[in-house]
Amino acid sequence: MAEIGTQISKASRLLENNELVAIPTETVYGLAGNALEPLALAKIYTTKDRPSFDPLITHVTNIADASALVHTFPALAQKLAEQFWPGPLTLLLPKREHIPDVLTSGLDKMAIRVPNHPMSLNLLKQIRFPLAAPSANPFGYVSPTTAAHVDQQLGAKISYILDGGPAHIGLESTIVSIEEEVIYVHRLGGIDIEMLRTFGEVNVLPHTKSHPDAPGQLDSHYAPRKKIIIGDLELLLLKYSDMKTGILSFSKIYPHPNKSIALSPDGDVHEAAEHLFSALRTLDAEDIDLILGEYVPQKGIGRAINDRLKRASFI
Ligand code: TXA
Ligand code: MG
User: Fold this and answer.
1) Of all protein residues, whose CA lies closest to atom 22 belonging to ligand 1?
2) Distance from C-alpha of 167 to C-alpha of 189, rounded to nearest angstrom
3) What is the mean pLDDT of the chain?
4) DSSP state letter for 103
5) What pLDDT score does 27 carry?
6) On the chain, which terminus has fewer CB atoms closer than 10 Å, C or N?
7) From the alpha carbon of 90, which atom of ligand 1 is closest?
8) Using one digit for the tens of pLDDT, what is the confidence trace for 161-187?
9) pLDDT given at position 219
10) Shared-domain flag, residues 178 and 277
11) Domain residue limits at 24
12) If you take atom 10 of ligand 1, which residue's CA is the nearest one?
């Protein structure tokens, strides 16, 4: 198992030696390495069992550091960065030549954001190079929202996990690109589209079975190992009454012989987002055959929750 601690100097030493460190962010924990060193980037891909065609997100401390990595930073992208950084918004911007191709899987654009977590911001300031950090989970599985989640799956492969407490948003960042003043959403996430719409026209790109430039858009992703079926819980409970099921509800608490989790008994979508991934992990570890779930209200961050539920249930 990895050492779990709060020593930023230890994390920076490891990163300077091209080692990987798991870091906290406000969205989910990331598996970080030097974004400018192909050796560290190669370790990220192998540690996650991530296919080489799935590019990584780069983390920096501020807009100026982001600008130093990209060719152009359109005015609308700057406005979004000023509004939402540090925070759960990732911008796709054309990378400069010195950025390793392995970081972007050969694409011209790189994904970049400023995470809103004091520990990781302090770390970034100390090392003075950008950090590539995909979610710290094996490819395709549910993202980690605590240091313990990271340790459970990647603990044997990395030496240090920086513990910044539970991620308070609980879902990954929203990924956008800008083309001719239009905002294209590549992945729904922590910044909701209602907020983006105050900046201009917003287009949400559909998922595909094999989207060449954004595997986070794959139909099946963010999935627990157990089968999960989403629908009307009352009907699903009748239909699967002869099976050992667990329940993942939005707010209603179900008396149920096996495990039942309500994401937010108060019916708050933000609280539901915060609890979603750890609830999926808990249910995945239960002695049940099937997880039954329901969609949450399709508004604000609720859209991103429903997106993850849909893809977790896709076979
Ligand atoms: O909240 C987050 O974004 C977290 C934290 C750690 O920052 N990171 C995260 O990274 O979710 P990851 O690698 O699990 O998801 C990044 C997604 C992938 O689906 C990848 O395909 C997409 O971003 N992506 C990265 N670079 C891209 C690019 N140049 N063009 C299109 N999609 C890109
Ligand atoms: Mg991920």
Assistant:
1) 214
2) 14
3) 94
4) G
5) 98
6) C
7) 3
8) 999 999 999 999 999 999 999 999 999
9) 58
10) no
11) 3-204
12) 134
